[in-house]
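Same chain as my last thread, 139 residues:
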Amino acid sequence: MGIVIRQSFKSIIVQYLGVVLGYINIVWLFPKCLPLDQIGLIRFILEMGLFLAYFAQIGVPNAVNKFYPYFRNKDKNDQGFQFFIFVTPIIGIVFFSIVFILMRPLFVSSFQENSPLVLHYYWYFIPFTIIYVYQNITE
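reply #2:
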C-alpha cells in the first residue's frame, strides 16, 4: 500500500503544479502579452479543434477501452489491435476534413460580421483536430 500512496502523492503534486502553471499562464501572462482578441482567437481555435475531434475520432477511444483487454495477449502482443487503433481514425479524419471544407461557406457567413479574425485561421482547425484525435486515442 505504501507504493500506491507514494505514487498517488507524486501524481497529485504534478497535477497541482500543472493547474498552477495553467493559472499563471492564462490569468497573468496572456493578458499582459496579448490583446483580448488574440486571446479569444487562441482559445477558440483550441476549443473548436477539441470539439471537432470528438466527431472525427469515430468512437475509437471507446473501442480501445472496451476491447483492448480481449485482444491483449502476452504471446502475440496485441494481435494487430494497435494498428487498427491508429489507422481507423484516418477514415474519420478524411471524412471530417471533407465535410469541414464543404461547410466553409456556412462558417464564413457565421463569423464574417462578428469575428473576421477567425476566418484567417480557418485551416488551423484541421491540424488541431488531428492532434486532438490522436491525443484522445493514445490517452
